[in-house]
Each structure stands twice: as structure tokens, then as C-alpha cells.
Design a protein that fits this description.
The chain has 580 residues and is of the alpha/beta class. It has ten helices and 31 strands. The strands form nine sheets. An eight-stranded parallel barrel has the order 1-2-5-8-9-10-11-12, surrounded by four helices. Strands 24, 25, 28, 29 and 30 form a five-stranded antiparallel sheet that branches.
Length: 580
């Protein structure tokens, strides 16, 4: 299942939304954070005190399985068993973290190291694995050869025979154990070094429908490419992080990224995980990657761009300071944001742009674009928000067409908006009756406004507080009301064979709670278009998908609609429609 980033709604609803944007409305959660090497107790507290209220969808956590001893960060990527124990905390603390985060609307994504085990002698009795469970190639990987990429040891790490049913079952047992504790998704580490079909076979052994994204680093001319993995789940788009490094280090005019994501060889937005930096390239390729070490406010402004631009499912990197590649994390107390812990995700410009992305999710497109031909850019999001980025060495003072309704908005890059009472504690931007606004943005800085942060208009659900939106890829239920509404669902291009039909499944009991056995069958009256009216609770956030399955056996003939989950709220006169 993939994260919903673009919401398909009828034109009548979009018009209604733009007219009534000042009213309180629930918003989806559309960005997540990697709390690299944080302890479980600190992540739980961060969910409750910051991530939940700020509207984050999820946290990617470091690998929880038992690994080799050592202080270096990379020891976490050398597992010796699938027991949940290590320097981030105990199994009980891990389970408590998952529960506490889930209670405030924040999912947990586990970094799953399943391609390999530690660089030992191919014997891991705690699993157990013996030499028959590993490939035998110990040569250096030849990246021009697919077999070598997926069968030889990666930097000496024992390469698992992931085509083996036994190995798949051991990996699935580990992941199902985590799912049983409430884990909502997984990052598949080193996915490039496993055939996509092997990963899919493991996925098919998992309980429920966890969110999956896969680490695949694409390189021109290589036989293994990111697009080969999109049928399994989302994929890391390293083109994005490389491009951000080039332009935010000001090596070319910033305006050239106005077509980012549309270039040849890039993943489709619905398949892409995007990030300014990750834990690997910020240490291994610092010269070409934007990190906290860059001057010119580049890290903050690059994140403003990523969270404001409609492409991919964004991940924010939050790490610790380091002086050498191998340096491990500071001691306990990550949530103190001191003693080396950086907490980049708490930077106002980054944290508040999460709410911007959430509040503009239903207009996943660029409108009212402007640039100065060099390092200044501005763009709108269909009248729901507007961003200005100034990486020039001088201030930007300009009146721009925002496309937004008239009013005074909080500049969320430089101020915090109180969603409960509608007040802003810093600079504001006034949009006139024609949609124009004057922006004064200092050099190497940014500005952003959105409809959820309109001064004088409280919007309690816009902040991402529990009850105001949905978690990232988590098949959980939304809040309901005391009245129901009839919603017509439509699935297009639903070509089936005899005995197979098209169903709708989603995140509440009326749509089966993501259980295919309880999915709702649609009517093929206009085959291959399938549709039916389903009664749902009013004022409820709904995530759903079209799916084909056998009528008599829900586990057979399964074919999911491609791309991200579909999202809508039943209070908004939506007509949910999707295609295979």
C-alpha cells in the first residue's frame, strides 16, 4: 500500500473547498521523519509532545533487531538475529513506543535489514541460519552484472538466499512480530541487492497490508533500476536528493528545478520517497548532499522546497552531529535536542512546512509559478498555499499573484500559528481581493502561507492533532459522527476473469478495515467500470483502494490498484473514483 499524496475529487468539491477554506477541516498527514539512532523512549515522547501535534505521518526508526556490538552507527545494519533488542532500548520499550505514537496519530516505520546478516561465518544460531541459507559469492560486487548485485556479499555482509522459502519465512516472522506490536510500515534496506520478486514474496507472507518502501539507488547504465521495484511498494528517489544538493549548493540557477520530478528516468510521484539527505549520503557524500553543515541556511530552505513542492512522499532527516563517517550517536536523551542531538525536524521552517503540505494535499500541483531567472522562486498550490524561496545574496521584495483567498495569513516559516485560537506570533502576509500579496524575504530564506493558518480563523484540525487527519499508510479507522452519508465509489478499467470481481477496501469497518475478506464488492453494470453506493459515517477521513480478488477466495487473484492510497473526507461531497 502506498501513501496518499494526491486526492482525486470532483471539480465541484474543489470549488466548494476554495470558497470555504477558512472553515475548520481535517487534513491528511503527508510527511514523515527519520529519527536516526533515537532511543525508543525518546521517540515516544517526541510523538506525544511534537510530532503528533505538528501533523507528522510517521517516524522511520533505526533497525530494532539484535546486531553486532560496537559504537559505530553502521553496526545497526549488521544483524545477528531477529530479536528486538539493542542500544535504542528493550523490546518492551519498543512496543510501548509504537503504542504511544499510534495513540497520537503517528505511525512507526521500521528500517528492516533483510538482505543480509553480519559479516560472520554464515552461521547465526539464534535465527537459526546456517551456510545453506546464504549465497556463496564473496567477490566484490560488479555493478554492471545483475546476478552479482543480487547474489554477492555487500561489503562482506553475508548475503541471504532470499529466494528460499525458509529464509522468506524467517524474515516474515520477524516482520509479522513487529506488525503484531503495531508497526505500520517498513523501509527495506539494500532492496537493490534482492530481486524484486523475492521482496514481493516476503511481502505476501505479511499480516495485514503494511506500508512498504524500498532502498534502491539507481545509477545510469546499471541493470538494476528503481522502477523495477514499484510493483512491490514505494521506492527511494535518489535523483531527488542529488538534485537538491546540486542546486541548493548554488551550483546552477535554482529556477532550473521548476520541472523536478518530470525528467526522464525519475520515478512517478506516487512511487517516490523523497528526501534532502539520508543517513548514508549525509556522511558518505557530504560534498554533494545538503546537511546541517551547509551554510546559507541551505538545509532549512531545501526542506521548505521539498515540503512545498508537489512530488513524492517526503522524509525529513533528523540526526546528530558528527566529525567522522563512523561516529555513532550521543548517549541517551535524544529528545533533549542537546549534547550533539540536532533535532532538525524541530526547526520552525521545517516543522511548520509539514502542516503546509498537509493543508495543501488536495491541490497536489503547481500554480501561479514565478521566478527571477536565477535563485528566486515562488509557486502556489491551487489557492491553498503559496511558497517563496530566495537563495540569492540579496533580499526579495515583490508583489506576487498567489491565487489565494483574501485575508491575512501567518508566515509559517518565521512564525507559529495557534490553530486553536487563530493567532500568529510573528510575521504575517496579507492577500488582497485579487489574490496578490507583497513578500519581503531576506536572502537565503523563504516564506510560506496556507489556508489553515489564516489569522483570526481557528482551524483546530489543521494542525494535525489527534483526530485531525490520518497516519501514514496505517490501516486504521477515522473518527465518525452520528449521521451517515451515501458515497458512490467507482473503479475504472477493472478488467477481470470469470470468478474475479472488483472490490473497495479501506480504513473503516464499512470498507473492511483493509481485510480483503471483508472488502465491499462493486457492481459491474458498466463493465469494465465498477461502482456502488456505500453508506459511511459523516465527517470521516477515508483511505481506500480498488482491488481485484476471487469472489470465493479473497486471497486468490489479488490485484491492487496502483499508486498511493486514495483519500477523502465524507463531509466534502466527494465522489471517490480510481483506476487500475
Amino acid at each position: 500500500m502506498k501513501r496518499s499524496l494526491n486526492i482525486a475529487l470532483r471539480a465541484v468539491f474543489l470549488l466548494l473547498f476554495s470558497q470555504l477554506a477558512h472553515l475548520a477541516h481535517a487534513v491528511p498527514r503527508t510527511a514523515f521523519v527519520h529519527l536516526f539512532e533515537w532511543q525508543w523512549n525518546d521517540i515516544a515522547a517526541e510523538c506525544e509532545n511534537f510530532l503528533g501535534p505538528k501533523g507528522f505521518a510517521a517516524v522511520q526508526v533505526s533497525p530494532p533487531q539484535k546486531s553486532i556490538n560496537g559504537s559505530q552507527w553502521w553496526t545497526r545494519y549488521q544483524p545477528v538475529s531477529y530479536a528486538v533488542e539493542g542500544r535504542s532500548g528493550s523490546r518492551a520499550q519498543f512496543a510501548d513506543m509504537v503504542r504511544r505514537c499510534k495513540a497520537v496519530g503517528v505511525d512507526i516505520y521500521v528500517d528492516a535489514v533483510i538482505n543480509h546478516m553480519a559479516a560472520f561465518d554464515r552461521r547465526f544460531p539464534e535465527v537459526p541460519y546456517d551456510p545453506n541459507d546464504f549465497h556463496t559469492c564473496t567477490d566484490d560486487i560488479d555493478y554492471s552484472n545483475e546476478w552479482s548485485i543480487q547474489n554477492c556479499d555487500l561489503v562482506g555482509l553475508n548475503d541471504l538466499k532470499t529466494e528460499s522459502g525458509y529464509v522468506q519465512s524467517r524474515i516474515a516472522d520477524y516482520m509479522n512480530d513487529l506488525i503484531g506490536m503495531g508497526v505500520a510500515g517498513f523501509r527495506i534496506d539494500a532492496a537493490k541487492h534482492m530481486p524484486a520478486n523475492d521482496i514481493n514474496a516476503i511481502k505476501n507472507r505479511l499480516n495485514g497490508n503494511p506500508y512498504i518502501f524500498q532502498e534502491v539507488i539507481g545509477a545510469g547504465g546499471e541493470p538494476v533500476q528503481p522502477g523495477q521495484y514499484t510493483f512491490v511498494g514505494d521506492v527511494t528517489e535518489f535523483n531527488f536528493t542529488n538534485t537538491m544538493g546540486h542546486y541548493f549548493k548554488l551550483r546552477s540557477p535554482l529556477r532550473e528545478i521548476s520541472n523536478i520530478g518530470s525528467w526522464g528516468g525519475w520515478l512517478n510521484s506516487d512511487d517516490a520517497i523523497v528526501f534532502v539527505a539520508n543517513h548514508d549520503n549525509q556522511r558518505q557524500n557530504t560534498n554533494n548532499t545538503i546537511t546541517h553543515k551547509d551554510g546559507n541556511n541551505a538545509n532549512n530552505v531545501a526542506h521548505v522546497f521539498m515540503l512545498g513542492w508537489p512530488y513524492g512522499y517526503p522524509k525529513i532527516m533528523s540526526s546528530y552531529d558528527w566529525n567522522d563517517h563512523d561516529q555513532g550517536p550521543p548517549g541517551q536523551g535524544a529528545s533533549s535536542c542537546s549534547s550533539g542531538w540536532l533535532c532538525e525536524h524541530r526547526n520552525r521552517a521545517i516543522a511548520n512546512m509539514v502542516a503546509f503540505r498537509n493543508n495543501t494535499a488536495s491541490e497536489f500541483r503547481v500554480t501561479n509559478y514565478w521566478d527571477n531567472g536565477n535563485h528566486q522562486m515562488a509557486w502556489g498550490r491551487g489557492g491553498l498555499g503559496f511558497v517563496v524561496v530566495n537563495m540569492e545574496g540579496f533580499n526579495l521584495n515583490n508583489t506576487l499573484q498567489t491565487g489565494m483567498p483574501a485575508g491575512t495569513y501567518c508566515d509559517i516559516v518565521h512564525a507559529d500559528f495557534n490553530y486553536q485560537n487563530g493567532t500568529c506570533n510573528g510575521p504575517t502576509v496579507t492577500v488582497d481581493g485579487s489574490g496578490n500579496a507583497s513578500f519581503n524575504v531576506s536572502f537565503r530564506n523563504a516564506s510560506a502561507i496556507h489556508v489553515g493558518a489564516k489569522v483570526g480563523v481557528p482551524c483546530p484540525d489543521c494542525s494535525g492533532n489527534p483526530g485531525g487527519g490520518t497516519g501514514g499508510g496505517n490501516p486504521g479507522g477515522g473518527g465518525g459522527s452520528q449521521t451517515d452519508v451515501d458515497v458512490q465509489f467507482t473503479c475504472n478499467q477493472g478488467t477481470t476473469y470469470f470468478g474475479q470481481s472488483v472490490y473497495v477496501v479501506g480504513n473503516n469497518s464499512q470498507l473492511g478495515n483493509w481485510n480483503l475478506a471483508n472488502a465491499r464488492k462493486l457492481d459491474p453494470e458498466n463493465y469494465p467500470t465498477w461502482s456502488s453506493v456505500i453508506n459511511l459515517p459523516a465527517n470521516t477521513d477515508v483511505e481506500w483502494k480498488c482491488v481485484k480478488r476471487d469472489e470465493n477466495n479473497p486471497s486468490n487473484g489479488v490485484q491492487w490498484q496502483g499508486g498511493s492510497n486514495n483519500f477523502f473526507n465524507t463531509s466534502n461531497n466527494a465522489f471517490p473514483e480510481a483506476s487500475f
